[in-house]
Amino acid sequence: MDTASTTAARESAEARSEAGLWWILLITGSLWLVFALIVFQFDARSVNAIALLVGLVCLGAAVAELPAALQAHGGRRLALLLLAAAFAVIGVIALVHPEDSFSTLATIFAFYLLLRGIFDIVVAFLARGLELWWVGLISGSVQILLAFWAAGNFGHKSTLLIVWVGATALMQGVVQIVRAFELRSVAHA
Fold this sequence. Notes:
It contains 7 helices and no strands. By secondary structure, it is an all-alpha fold.
């Protein structure tokens, strides 16, 4: 057996191993959807609730990036770990300083949306061979648009921040559920 076929066999085994865990993405995607539903019920007058929402979403995104980072190799692993670290830092800042102004929270969340949107678009283009690669492209594009909206001064920042957090959680849930079914199809192929 030559080196190329050995490498291909190993990559195929790794893909099947990863695909066997499709149900984890299905569960986490469903939890993101439940979280989004809860977010939309928050009262926009509560600064602490909004800070908590932003912090939890960012920390959740940091945790969600870790399994992918552990499975990746080389530059992709480094990029995922840096993305997870950035989300964790932003989440902690939002939780530690809940009394900060809405503009600060909007700025923090705008950076989160920008980073996540860029990452989703890059991953979508790298996965163009997959059937539903365009879902990540749309999700990333919407997140980047929301990032610039969050950075703007449009008034009613508390209400907009809740909408941004809820929409981001909703998109994250949909993307993870779609990815779960993509992995499931690989596992059963």
